[in-house]
Design goal:
Elements lengths: L3 E8 L5 H14 L5 E9 L2 E5 L5 E3 L7 E2 L4 E2 L3 E4 L10 H9 L8 H8 L1 H9 L8 E5 L6 H8 L3 E5 L9 E3 L5 H9 L4 E6 L4 E10 L2 E4 L3 E5 L6 H5 L3 E4 L6 H17 L6 E8 L2 E8 L9 H8 L4 H13 L3
Parallel strand pairs: 1-2, 1-7
Antiparallel strand pairs: 2-3, 3-4, 5-6, 8-11, 9-10, 9-11, 12-13, 12-14, 12-16, 14-15, 16-17
Length: 327
C-alpha cells in the first residue's frame, strides 16, 4: 500500500495559535504511521513551514502548498486542518486549498466563514427556530448607547469578540460601568463585538462528525467551571470539570443531541464540529459552533471520542478517509 501524504496544518494568526499547536501535536502523534506519511506544517504570521523531525524548517510554496522533506518535494494528498481561528477556521485556508485542488478535513469555506462569524451564524439559525440568547451587535467606531444595550440584553451579560475563540477577549458584565471596558477588551481581538444575555443553567458541549454520509453525535460533556464562566483558565489551565457524559436527564440529552445534529445539517458542516449550549429551565440555548474544535489532550472532543470506546487513531482515520473517499 502506498502511504498517503498528510499535512497536519496548525498555528494560525490569532491568539489561539498556541492551542492549535497543541492540537496539531496530538494529531501528529496519533495518526496511523502505517497508513500515512505525516508532516507537521505550521502556518504562522512569520511564515508557513514544514517542521522536520530534527526541528529544521522547510518553507511551504504557497503556489502548490508543497515543501521539501529532505529527500523530495511533497504535495499533500490531504490537509488535516487543526488551525483554531484565522485563517484555518474562518474559510480562508479552505478556499485557498480548494482553488489549488488539495482536500482538507474541515468544513468547506462558506460554512466555515458563516459559523466563525457569531452574529451571522446566530442570525441564520434563528430563522430555523434554533433558540439562542438575546444579542446586540456593535462595530468598532459605532456610537455606543449603554442604556440601549442593557435594555436589549439585560444584566449580567457577556461581551465577546464576534470572530474569536478559546474565550479570548470575553468579559462577563455585571454592572453598567463594566460595559465600556469590556467592549474595549473585545476590540483587542476583533473589530466586531457581540453582547449577549448571560444565561443561567447547565453548560453542555457536544461533538458531531460525519463518517462518510452518516452523521454521528458524540456523548455530551457537562462543563462545571470554578470561575465565573468557562474562560481561558477554565478551558486550558484546569479550572473546570468536564464531565462526560453530562449529568442531565435523558430527555435533555436527547434534545441536545437532536439540536446539535440539526445545526450540523443546517450549516452544511463536515468533519468534526463542537456545539456549545446552555440548558436553562430545561431548554437548550445554542451558544456557538466550532468547526475546528480543540484536539489537545485537555480538549473536550478527544474525551468524548474516548467515551465511545474509540481511540484517537481510529477517529482521525475516519476524518481523513471521509476526504479520500470523495476524491
Amino acid at each position: 500500500m502506498v502511504k498517503k501524504h498528510i499535512a497536519v496544518v496548525m498555528g494560525g494568526y490569532s491568539s489561539e495559535f498556541e492551542i492549535s499547536l497543541q492540537s496539531g501535536g496530538v494529531v501528529c502523534e496519533f495518526l496511523d504511521k502505517e497508513k500515512y506519511n505525516v508532516y507537521p506544517v505550521q502556518v504562522l504570521k512569520e511564515g508557513w513551514s514544514y517542521i522536520a523531525d530534527d526541528g529544521s524548517k522547510h518553507s511551504v510554496n504557497k503556489d502548490t502548498f508543497s515543501f521539501y522533506n529532505g529527500n523530495e518535494t511533497i504535495i499533500p494528498d490531504v490537509v488535516f486542518n487543526v488551525i483554531h481561528g484565522t485563517p484555518g477556521e474562518d474559510g480562508y485556508l479552505q478556499a485557498y486549498l480548494e482553488l489549488i485542488g488539495i482536500p482538507q478535513t474541515s468544513s468547506e469555506f462558506y460554512p466555515s466563514a458563516l459559523s466563525f462569524n457569531k452574529r451571522d451564524c446566530l442570525s441564520v439559525l434563528k430563522t430555523f427556530g434554533i433558540i439562542c440568547a438575546n444579542s446586540y451587535y456593535i462595530n468598532k467606531g459605532n456610537i455606543i448607547s449603554e442604556e440601549e444595550i442593557i435594555k436589549k440584553v439585560g444584566l449580567p451579560c457577556f461581551v465577546k469578540p464576534n470572530r474569536s475563540g478559546s474565550s479570548f477577549g470575553i468579559s462577563k458584565v455585571n454592572k453598567m460601568e463594566e460595559l465600556i471596558p469590556a467592549i474595549e477588551k473585545a476590540y483587542k481581538e476583533d473589530t466586531e463585538v457581540i453582547i449577549e444575555t448571560a444565561l443561567l443553567g447547565t453548560e453542555v458541549s457536544v461533538g458531531v462528525f460525519n463518517n462518510n454520509d452518516e452523521i454521528i453525535v458524540l456523548p455530551a460533556t457537562e462543563i462545571v467551571t470554578e470561575n465565573d464562566y468557562f474562560d481561558y483558565d477554565a478551558k486550558y489551565l484546569g479550572k473546570s470539570q468536564e464531565i462526560t457524559p453530562a449529568r442531565i436527564s435523558e430527555k435533555e440529552t436527547n434534545k441536545i443531541k437532536e439540536e446539535a445534529e440539526r445545526i450540523y445539517k443546517l450549516l452544511n458542516m463536515k468533519g468534526i464540529t463542537r456545539s456549545d449550549f446552555i440548558i436553562q429551565k430545561g431548554i437548550p440555548y445554542f451558544i456557538e459552533i466550532n468547526t475546528n474544535p480543540g484536539l489537545s489532550k485537555e480538549s473536550i472532543v478527544p474525551k468524548q471520542v474516548r467515551q465511545t470506546g474509540m481511540n484517537l487513531t481510529e477517529f482521525f482515520d475516519i476524518l481523513i478517509q471521509n476526504v479520500l473517499n470523495k476524491n
